Amino acid sequence: MTAAQATRHETVMDPTAMSLASVYADALLGAADAAGIDPDTLAHEIDAVAGVLAEGEGAQLLDPELLGRDARVKCVERIFVGKVSEVTAGLLSVMARRGRLSLVRAVAWQFGRLVNRRGNRQTAEVYSAVELDEGQRSKVQAQLRQFLRAEPLIHFQVQAGLLGGLKIRIGDDIYDASIGAGIERLCRTLERGGHGPSQQE
Question: Which residues contact 113 (CB under 8 A, 6 or more apart)?
């Protein structure tokens, strides 16, 4: 990890930065509503912008020592104006003037949370020892939908060290269970509001 990458990672994790990013995300959602832009589309766009700022010429915009404010704003306009929505371009311009482009990744994350909350969606990560088949994935999704009372956005990943088990992360909580009957036990545990056999990472 380069020094610049480490800085960006620390920015996303920093509570103060995340609080400020939340303010920008709120403003972005309001601007999207006013402009009649689909929030989901805007979420993908701002996430893509964060990716551009993570490498090459875009990454230079995150270092205040390389460019002054005026040069930074001009670079943002050259790279993004006409290629992203006016709402996103406006946000980037404001952040460039204030030297806060390093917060774009955090803004994208906070904005995604707002959009998911509005759409009654919640993310979950499901780890399994082997690739789950379509039937198993559907079963996990249906049970999480029932428990969360929201549409689960599930990221399925293989983690061989589970030795045939299943691990589900919901927010900061991690639940372990075996495939099949274990999923049923997991959901019963969740419904009782308990954490069951869990481990915090």
Answer: 25
Separation between Cα atoms, residue 113 and residue 36, nearest integer Å = 19
For residue range 45-73, what is the model confidence (pLDDT) as tens digits? Answer: 999 999 888 876 666 666 666 678 888 88
CATH C-level class of 120-191: alpha beta
CA distance 175 to 193: 12
User: Phi-psi category of 51—alpha, beta or left, where left has phi over 0 and alpha has psi -120 to 50?
Assistant: alpha
Buried b (16+ CB within 10 A) or exposed e, 125-148: ebbbbeebeeebeebbbebbeebe
pTM for this prediction: 0.64
Task: Cite the residue boundaries of each domain of the chain with CATH code 3.40.30.
Answer: 120-191
Distance CA 64, CA 67 (A): 6
| DSSP code string of 143-166 | HHHHHHTSEEEEEEEE-GGGTTEE
| CATH number for the domain whose boundaries are 3-117 | 1.10.520.20
Q: Where along the chain do the CATH 1.10.520.20 domains lie? A: 3-117
